Amino acid sequence: MTKHADADTRRLQIAEALIRTLADRGIIRTTLADVATAADVSVGLVQRYFRSKDELLIFGIEHVYQRAIERVRQVQPTTPIRDFLTRLMETLLPLDQERERELRVWLNFVQASLTNPKMAAIHQTATADLIGGAAEVLAAAQRAGELDTTVDPAREAAALVAFADGLSLHHAVTGDRYDAAGIHGALTAYISRLFDRGAAT
């Protein structure tokens, strides 16, 4: 393994440890020493790749978003397009233990982005990309005759992303009232209403 590959592996190892630690302790209580312990490495090794906690946090949120992107890319396009869109949006919901942990980390980063311009920029870019992708799917549904052409893809995509984020937030905060089955059902119902309301005749 080359030194470059080894460095990349180490950075990912530390990022995974950061995610586990943040999910349990939150940003304020998490230290570089905590992350080093979770990664089973020394604090000095963590600092070799990340000079500060902020630098590590920036890499961490980018890593979380990259994992989400990889899940989205694994969803194969199918028809009807409403089912394809549903499966795409499902990848963003905390429907398993891994995404449950990522949600807790994401919420920590969202709060931090209110006062950290670099984190805010990452969130803005990721959200814009997500909305843009959803809008493209809705536009494809219009071309396929599944969705009425009077529907505004960009506006509905923004609303859909906000709805999914809201489901995730309430799941994290209220637990059983928004359990995995509940938020999955709510997403399916939302998309069904969107397509049924605008279905071409």
TrEMBL record:
One Gene Ontology term of the molecular function aspect: DNA-binding transcription factor activity
SUPFAM superfamilies cross-referenced by the UniProt entry: Homeodomain-like, Tetracyclin repressor-like, C-terminal domain
Alphabetized UniProt keyword annotations: DNA-binding, Repressor, Transcription, Transcription regulation
Domain HTH tetR-type, residue spans: 8-68
Keyword Transcription: yes
Superkingdom of source: Bacteria
InterPro entries membership: BetI_C, Homeodomain-like_sf, HTH-type_TetR-like_transc_reg, HTH_TetR, Tet_transcr_reg_TetR-rel_C_sf
DNA-binding region ranges: 31-50
Annotated protein name in UniProt: TetR family transcriptional regulator
